[in-house]
UniProtKB/TrEMBL annotation:
<keyword id="KW-0479">Metal-binding</keyword>
<dbReference type="InterPro" id="IPR002328">
    <property type="entry name" value="ADH_Zn_CS"/>
</dbReference>
<dbReference type="InterPro" id="IPR020843">
    <property type="entry name" value="ER"/>
</dbReference>
<keyword id="KW-0862">Zinc</keyword>
<protein>
    <submittedName>
        <fullName>Zinc-binding dehydrogenase</fullName>
    </submittedName>
</protein>
<dbReference type="InterPro" id="IPR011032">
    <property type="entry name" value="GroES-like_sf"/>
</dbReference>
<dbReference type="InterPro" id="IPR050129">
    <property type="entry name" value="Zn_alcohol_dh"/>
</dbReference>
<dbReference type="InterPro" id="IPR013149">
    <property type="entry name" value="ADH-like_C"/>
</dbReference>
<feature type="domain" description="Enoyl reductase (ER)">
    <location>
        <begin position="10"/>
        <end position="337"/>
    </location>
</feature>
<dbReference type="InterPro" id="IPR013154">
    <property type="entry name" value="ADH-like_N"/>
</dbReference>
<keyword id="KW-0560">Oxidoreductase</keyword>
<dbReference type="Pfam" id="PF08240">
    <property type="entry name" value="ADH_N"/>
</dbReference>
<comment type="similarity">
    <text>Belongs to the zinc-containing alcohol dehydrogenase family.</text>
</comment>
<dbReference type="Pfam" id="PF00107">
    <property type="entry name" value="ADH_zinc_N"/>
</dbReference>
<dbReference type="InterPro" id="IPR036291">
    <property type="entry name" value="NAD(P)-bd_dom_sf"/>
</dbReference>
C-alpha cells in the first residue's frame, strides 16, 4: 500500500510503498477513506513521542470501511463504515471496566504505538471496544476529524470542563481542537472568547460562535473583557506562555482545561492555584462508548463538524502540510487527507 513514511525526525517524510497491515487479534483492518492532519502528528514527526519507532507511518484521525476482520470479532462486517477514537482501549482493565477508556493503561494509538492512518489501510485493535459505526449520511471527511480533535474537545468542554450556559470560556489557540471547542461551547450556550494570532483562524472562530476574538494573549485585557475573569480557560495549542496567561485570566475558583501537549513542560504558579482555588483539569480523548451522544447532536444539526474542514489533500501534499504546522498560525481550519 501507499503511505507517508517518516524515516528521520524533523526531516520531511516521503510517499512510499510499504507492507499492508496484518489483522490484529481481536481487531480489524480498515480501508482509509479520510484521515485528519493534526498537530499531534507534527509532535510525533518532531520526535516528541517516545512510543514512536522509526521508520514510522503517522496518522490517528480516521474514517473508512472495514476491509478485514479477525476471527472471533462479532457485531461487525466487511464493508461497514467506521471510525474509532485515537485511543484504542483494551476493554478489560479496571479503567475500561469503569468506562474510562481514554486513560486505559494498555491503550494502543495508531500513528504512535504502531503505524497509523496516513496510508491506504490501517489496523485497529480491540475492535469490539473501539469501533464506532458511522451513519450513512455522515461524510468520511467529517468523521475523520471526530476521532481526535472534535471528540477530544467535546469531552473536554462538556464532560471534563462542565461548561454551562451563560459561563465564559476563553480558548487559547484556534487550530482544530480550539475551533472545535469554540463551536461546542457556543452550542452549549457559553460566551466564548477565542485567542489566536492568525486572522483567518479568528474569522473561523467568529463563524463558529465566538462572541469575541482577540489576537493577543494578554491576561489583563481578557479579565476586563470577561468582566472579572473567565469561568473556564482552555489551552488548545500547548504553550507554557499560554498556560500562564490562561491561569491569570480565570476568576477565583475558575477551571483550566489543558488539552494542548506540553513536550517541554510547564511552570505553574502553585500559590495562585491554591490562593484562588483554581482547578487544573487534564483531558485526553474520548471513549468510543461516548460517541452516540455527540453523533446525535451532529445529526440534529446542533454541532456542525463538517464546517471545520477547510482543505482536502492527497498523500503527495502531506509532507509540506505537515511542515506547515511548525508555524502554528500558518493555516486555519482542519486539513483532511484522502489516501
Amino acid at each position: 500500500m501507499r503511505a507517508i513514511l517518516i524515516e528521520q525526525y524533523g526531516v520531511p517524510p516521503v510517499v512510499a510503498d510499504v507492507v499492508d497491515p496484518k489483522v490484529p487479534d481481536g481487531g480489524v483492518v480498515v480501508r482509509v477513506e479520510a484521515t485528519g492532519l493534526c498537530r499531534s502528528d507534527w509532535h510525533g514527526w518532531q520526535g516528541h513521542d517516545s512510543d514512536i519507532v522509526l521508520p514510522h507511518v503517522p496518522g490517528h484521525e480516521l474514517a473508512g470501511t472495514i476491509a478485514a476482520i479477525a476471527p472471533g470479532v462479532t457485531g461487525w462486517n466487511v464493508g461497514d463504515r467506521v471510525t474509532a477514537p485515537f485511543i484504542c482501549a483494551c476493554g478489560q482493565c479496571r479503567e475500561c471496566l469503569d468506562g474510562n477508556h481514554q486513560v486505559c493503561p494498555n491503550q494502543l494509538q495508531p500513528g504512535f504505538n504502531y503505524w497509523g492512518s496516513f496510508a491506504e489501510y490501517v489496523a485497529l485493535p480491540f475492535a469490539e471496544v473501539n469501533l464506532v459505526r458511522l451513519p450513512d449520511e455522515l461524510a468520511f471527511d467529517t468523521a475523520a476529524g471526530l476521532g481526535c480533535r472534535f471528540a477530544t474537545s467535546y469531552r473536554a468542554v462538556h464532560q471534563v470542563g462542565r461548561i454551562q450556559a451563560g459561563e465564559k470560556l476563553i480558548v487559547f489557540g484556534c487550530g482544530g481542537v480550539g475551533l472545535s471547542a469554540v463551536m461546542i461551547a457556543a452550542a452549549l450556550g457559553a460566551e466564548v472568547v477565542a485567542v489566536d494570532t492568525n486572522p483567518a483562524a479568528l474569522a473561523l472562530a467568529t463563524r463558529y460562535g465566538a462572541a469575541h476574538v482577540v489576537d493577543t494573549a494578554d491576561a489583563e485585557r481578557l479579565v476586563d473583557l470577561t468582566g472579572g475573569g473567565a469561568d473556564v480557560t482552555m489551552d488548545a495549542l500547548g504553550s507554557n506562555q499560554l498556560v500562564q496567561e490562561a491561569l491569570r485570566s480565570l476568576r477565583p475558583r475558575g477551571r483550566h482545561l489543558q488539552v494542548g501537549l506540553l513536550p517541554s513542560g510547564v511552570q505553574l504558579d502553585v500559590s495562585r492555584l491554591i490562593g484562588q482555588e483554581l482547578q487544573w483539569l487534564g483531558s485526553h480523548g474520548m471513549a468510543a462508548h461516548a460517541y452516540p451522544e455527540m453523533l446525535d447532536l451532529v445529526a440534529q444539526g446542533n454541532l456542525k463538524p463538517a464546517d471545520l474542514v477547510t482543505r482536502t489533500i492527497g498523500l503527495p501534499a502531506v509532507p509540506d502540510a505537515l511542515a506547515s504546522l511548525t508555524t502554528p498560525n500558518a493555516t486555519a481550519g482542519v486539513t483532511v487527507i484522502h489516501p
